[in-house]
Structures are given as structure tokens and as C-alpha cells.
Amino acid sequence: MSEAVLDHAASERYAQATQLQLTWWRFRKHKLAVASLVVIILFYLVAIFADALAPNDPHATDARRSFIPPQGIHLFDDSGFNPHVYGLRGVRDPRTFKLAYAPDPARKLPVRLFANGYSYDLFGLFETDIHLFGVVGGNRGEGIFLLGTDQLGRDLFSRLVVATRVSLFIGLAGVTLSLLLGVLLGGISGLYGGWVDTLIQRVIEVLRSIPTIPLWMGLAAALPNTWSVTQIYLAITIIISLIGWTELARVVRGRFLSLREEDFVVAAELAGASQLRIIFRHMLPSFASHVIAAVSLALPAMIVSETSLSFLGLGLRPPAVSWGILLQDAQNIQVLAGAPWLLAAAVPVILAILAFNFLGDGLRDAADPYG
Amino acid sequence: MNVLEVAALKKHFPIRAGLLRREVGRVRAVDGVSFSIAEGETLALVGESGCGKTTVARCILRAQRVTSGAIRFSPAPGRVVDLAAVPKAALRPLRRHIQMIFQDPYASLNPRMVVGDIIAEPLKVNGVPAAERAARVLELLDLVGLPALARSRFPHAFSGGQRQRIGIARALALNPRLVVADEPVSALDVSVQAQIINLLLDLQDRLKLSMLFVAHDLSVVRHVSDRVAVMYVGRIVEVAPTDALYRTPRHPYTETLLAAVPAPDPARRGRRIVPRGEVADSAKPPPGCAFHPRCPHVVDRCRVERPNLIDLGAGRQVSCHRARELSLAGVG
């Protein structure tokens, strides 16, 4: 009896499920995509709270602490639970006379949550110097270097965290711009057809036939040296989305063309519905999910574009910090031999790209629950 | 009083080729079709796929532009408009008077709208106030035999037959003068087909519907239609009251169509007539009678002279040179 009632409730829930619910139910079964979604949410949380997560000022240089290897956190000492890192001691190599840092177990720097550090603006609103974790005490130049430091003595972990913000948001900004261009031009192309359609499609073909790296290099080289970091950032976003919109425009156009022939659209037209109502009530909701899936597949391409441009020295320039700029430091084989930890900057790139691709796959499969 | 009079309707599709998209030929999908539908009458338009019957339906609904001809429609008693001549902008106020039942109940309902909204849409876009809409939706659901709680569900919760009921409710929402049903049961299971046919019969009875029923299945047509028009390659070859057509077909093509209707009783199975060859290509129809290459009764005249639709009396028209001399086999 109660089972039958439950059964009925479940089928009624299914009967009244909106597209969003159906999509979610289907997406949930795609375990890899759900895991990727979690990873991506974590990435964006890191990006939003970058300054609070970075224990050291990502821009502070200190020649004495260049190329410090990654430091481990020790959780216990003789007195019990007391997380700490070792202090540093300069040791001169007897053969090369090069000064290298070695951990000094004699001095312990305690690690604390919500420690004070460099000051920054949280969300650009209020100034604070509270960081999620950091060391208490220690001499100038000492600190917690989870992933070691670079040649200029900057903390790689802090720089990576701050770079996440730049790299992920440049992707978002680029995709937003592509989306606007793509939906607008693709929509016009699909709705009006005729010579407008032909013109837009030929423009897309020409744009897509240009090899991207030389095009970007040309455009990026044309940016004036005198521009500020923000201006360059905006310009790079526009350059990247210049190619990105074509794919989205094709998706939108294709959906418009196929939807125009759908029976339920014809039915609305025969009922006397206005063109606007048909577009906004019937057509747009039918392909919004496809566009979201296309966007989540376009994002990693954007991120890779920014990374490769910056890696080649054509994208963002120091003092801006992005994944590409961090990888630029790892270009030199001699540096890499001495400080292999600089390659750590590649890990978040790979993770983010994989996660976005799996998420995009999952969304694409779940996007049309009626198919 | 006729609700619809179609006169010499033509719909040609140009075949374009080459870089300049020059017209190299024409598909004569509908090539001079005339018929009428009286008030409260159901006319069935039958023929093989590709004969142009769906194009006729779409022309009447003005989902397609007409090449030439007239579609005289009466939106209200005493008023007649030629739908073929109305500009597209002036079409919207007329749309409410002709509604359509679609073939595929899976494609014709927007999956993202609840059933109540789907049925109410024609009402909404024609300015019926919300309270009235809600009452009308309940009335329509009851009319097509669906429970009232169906209105808050999405189409994915319904079977093909139930979806077709929803489609019928939507078509009837505005009390249209004419309903065009484009193969309304051919996408359904046979058992469900019977239910939908019964529903349509019931609605004809209660609402005095005028209907154009497009179908390829003659066994279905027999139950719902008052008269039948048989189409072949863009033209009507025979029009007759349903019973007369089934009992004594006058066109050889009608005879072959009837012979293809499966008879459930083996004792009553007649000889099968399988026409030779393929359906004629409407881009280059054969000279003379379009059916002559396949016709078992062909004479020399059929190969050169195209027959016109002639009146045989008793509401029968046929376009065959030998209509008066042949005696053809019907069913039941």
C-alpha cells in the first residue's frame, strides 16, 4: 500500500519535472562529470579567495631566498601536535661556492590558521591581512613555501593561486564575449537565412581557416608597449574570443535552422503566436542547454589559448601573473634542472582543462533530456 | 455552405543548381487541385507518400506559399477570404480559424511546457484572459478524455496516444472553423489508432467539426470521412462519397489502393493488384495520364492526352478516359 503511494508520488514527480530537473537527474549519473564539476567549483573558489589563500605576497622578491625547494609541513614535534615548517639556513656548496638553502631543523616556525600576512583588498572592498594559513614569527624572508620559490625568491604556491584567478577569469570573459557574438550572429544567420546567412557563414569560414597561433601573434604584437596590465588583459580577451565565437555561432545557427522546422514551432506559428514569442518561448529554451554545453567545452580552449600566448611571451606580461607566465619561467632547461618544482604550474592547467572537458561532455549528454 | 473551396491550387518547388542557383526544373508537388469541404463535413485526402497531399494541407494552413490558385475560406458565415492572396502580415488574425493536428505527437508538443500551457497557448496568443483560459483548458482536457491533473505535467509523462489527445485539445482550443489533420494516427500503434479515431468521430458528432483528413491508410479513412479525394502525383484522380468509393471505385489507381487495404477476414481477401513500376516523379511527370505507365487498363489515348476531372453524378468525379467503360473491383 505505502509502496504504491510512494510509486505514485515518484511518477508524479517525474511527470512534473522541468527540463532543469531532468537534465540534473541525467547529469548526476555521469560520475566523472560530477567530480569535474566539484573540481571546477574548487578552482573558482580558489580564484575568488586567491589573496586569502596565498600565504606570501606573490610579488615580493628576495634575492636571498631564490630557488628554495618545496617545504613540507611537519605536524608533530616532541611536545605533541604542533604544525610547523623548518626555518632556513644558508649553506655554501663546497664545489660551486653557490649559496643554497637547506632546512634548519633546529628552528621551527609554527604554522597557524588565519595568520596575519601581507595586506590586500578582499573583493576589492575592504583591506585585511588575514590569510587562511601562514607562519608566525620567523625572520624577514622566511615563510612557508609549499611549492618552493622561483629565481627571484617569490613563493610559487602563492603565485599559482593568484594566477588561477587571472587564467580562469580570462577564460570566462573570453567565453562571455564569444557567447554574445556567437548567439547574436548565429541567431541572425539562422533566423533570416538568405544572403545574410551566406555572408556570416563565409566570414566564419575565413576566420577559421587562418592558423590561430600566427594570427594571435600578429595581433598581440600589435598591442602597444605602453598599455597597462588591465588594458593588455582586455585586449588579449578580445583577441582570444575573436576565433572562439565562430564555433558557438555555428551551434546556435544549426539549432535555429532545425528548430524552425520543428512541429511544435510550426504549431505555435499556426496558433497565431508572434515571431518574438516563438523565439523566446519556444526556440531559445530549446537550445539554451546546448549552448551551455558548448560554452563549457569552449572554456578550456580559451584557457589554453591564454596560457600558450603568455607562455610564448605574447599574452599577458609581468607583473601580471597567469599560468602561462609561470610556465614561461620553466622554459629554461638549466633552471628546470636546478629547480624542477617550477613545473608545478602545469598541474593546475592540466587539471582544469580535463575537468572542463569532462564537465562539457557530461553536460552535452544531459543537455537534451527529450532526445 | 462550404467552409473551404480550393480551386486550381498549384505548388511548385524550383530545383536550383550551379553557382548562380539557376532554376533547372520544377517539382510539381501540387499541380492543379480543386475540392471543397462543406460545413460539418470531413474530406479525406489520400494517396501514396510523395503525392502532394501534405503539401496541399500546408498550403491551406499557409505554412507554405502558394504558387497559384485560390483557397477560398470562410472564417465566419457569410464571409470569404482567399488565403492564397492574403499577405503574410494579415494572416495572423485568420490563423485561429484553421487549426492543425500533427502527425507526430512526439514532435508537435514543446517538451519544455506543461500540458496546460500547451493547450492554452492558442488562447493566450489570441488574447483570452487567464481565468477563462484555465476553465477552457479543463473543458478541453475533459473533451479529449484526459484527467484534469494532466495540465501540470510535462509531455514526457504521456504515451503517444495521450499526446495526440493533447494535440487535438490544442487544435480545438479556439473553436476553429476547419481542422486540418495531417496523418493524425499513422504514428500510433494500431490499438491506439482506434481510440484516437473514436475520439475524432465523437468530436465530429459533438462539435460538428469540418475537417480535412490527410492519410495514406484507406482503412482508417473509411471510418472518419464523408467523402474521399484520391491524389496521384500532384493531382486529384477521383472524388466520391466514402461508401461509393470503396464499393465501386472508378479510377484504376483507386482500385489498386483499395486492393492494398489488408482484409482481416481471409475468406474475403480478393486478388491483389500490384501496380507495375514506380510512382511517377513529380519533377518530370509522364505525358498524358500520370498513371498510364502503371495502369493495367492503359490504352493509346492515355499516353498522349491528359484526362480532366469529369463529373459522373452522385457527387462523383474522376479523371480517367475509360471511367465509364471500366468496371473495377472495390471492397465490402
TrEMBL record, chain A:
> Where is it located?
Cell membrane
Q: Which InterPro entries match?
A: MetI-like (IPR000515), MetI-like_sf (IPR035906), OppC_N (IPR025966)
| Biological source species | Paeniroseomonas aquatica
Main location class? membrane
Q: Where is the ABC transmembrane type-1 domain?
A: 164-360
Output the SUPFAM superfamilies linked to this UniProt entry.
MetI-like (SSF161098)
Q: What is this protein called?
A: ABC transporter permease
Q: Does the keyword Lyase apply?
A: no
Name the UniProt key words of this record, in alphabetical order: Membrane, Transmembrane, Transmembrane helix, Transport
For this protein, the parts annotated as crossing the membrane are 32-50, 166-194, 232-252, 284-303, 339-359
Membrane topology is: Multi-pass membrane protein
Q: Does the keyword Transmembrane apply?
A: yes
Lineage, uppermost ranks: Bacteria, Pseudomonadati, Pseudomonadota, Alphaproteobacteria, Acetobacterales
UniProt family annotation: Belongs to the binding-protein-dependent transport system permease family.
Q: Which PROSITE patterns match?
A: ABC_TM1 (PS50928)
TrEMBL record, chain B:
Report the superkingdom from the record. Bacteria
| UniProt entry keywords in alphabetical sequence | ATP-binding, Nucleotide-binding, Transport
For this protein, the record's InterPro entries field holds: AAA+_ATPase (IPR003593), ABC_transp_ATP-bind (IPR050319), ABC_transporter-like_ATP-bd (IPR003439), ABC_transporter-like_CS (IPR017871), Oligopep_ABC_C (IPR013563), P-loop_NTPase (IPR027417)
Keyword Lipid biosynthesis present in the record's keywords: the answer is: no
What is stated as this protein's family in its record? Belongs to the ABC transporter superfamily.
SUPFAM superfamilies recorded for this chain?
P-loop containing nucleoside triphosphate hydrolases (SSF52540)
Family annotation (Pfam families): ABC_tran, oligo_HPY
Topology of this chain in the membrane: Peripheral membrane protein
- The name under which this protein is listed is ATP-binding cassette domain-containing protein
Q: State where the protein is found.
A: Cell inner membrane
ABC transporter domain segment(s): 15-258
MF-aspect GO terms: ATP binding
Q: Does the keyword Protein transport apply?
A: no
